[in-house]
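Record type: monomer structure entry
Structure origin: computed from sequence
Chain ID: A
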Amino acid sequence: MIGLGTYAFFWQHSDRMERPLSLVDAFEATRELDVSLFQICDYAPLETMSDRELREAAAEARGLGLRIELGTKGIEPERLSRFLAVAEIFDAKLLRSMVTGPDSSPTLPQALAWLTESLPAYEAAGVTLALETYEQVATEKLVELVSAAGSPNIGVCLDPANVVARLEHPREVVELAAPVTVNVHVKDFAFARQDGWVGFTYSGAAMGTGLHDYPHLLREVRPRERGVNEIVEHWLSWQGGAEATVRAEQAWTRTTVDYLRSIR
């Protein structure tokens, strides 16, 4: 299923806007595109919302016919326990996270110990934990960690854009992670020469115009056959002003959704 994530509304949520988009505003914008899945991922207000506020947001999502996934950073047992409770409020069946969090950077043995402690509760609740591919942990080691956890409720959130910072090749990472991928983050990416030809900038691109070989990912991962959701997000740089940035962000979202619907 195609979904939108909060990173598709990164600038619209930001305090650079005169009126930042609320979570419910993003829900409504998602439904306007006839998309029925939303991933609340790394959305800071979620960390401080009361249970009442969470229940109200969950009710708004249900009223709009939206399925919800969640996202955070870190795998400390306390964090995973808290977000499992939030998942219950939203009836979310997937939590995306990262091995490295804002308050911890565990060794892989420590990470495995934490996961071993937390995963039985995820299994009992029917919630899947998706650990994202990032430069902090080699993809090979991440796949090994997921396999060592030995649970049907853990896998990889595959984002080939992130791994370039580790000098991993996106196509190779797709092939390595494909068997254990349970979630996909969809964004295109490209290199551009800096002024004066003194280096490159690595950043986002409108979907279908950059270096991401998404047909290859579809062949390797087979997300639509396996029920793996594809979540739209962007790496969009500031466009010089709020109005231009919002226009570009909205256009990239429409482009990506159209692209995903057109490609098989």
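Annotation 1: The chain has a mean pLDDT of 97.
Annotation 2: The chain has ten helices and ten strands.
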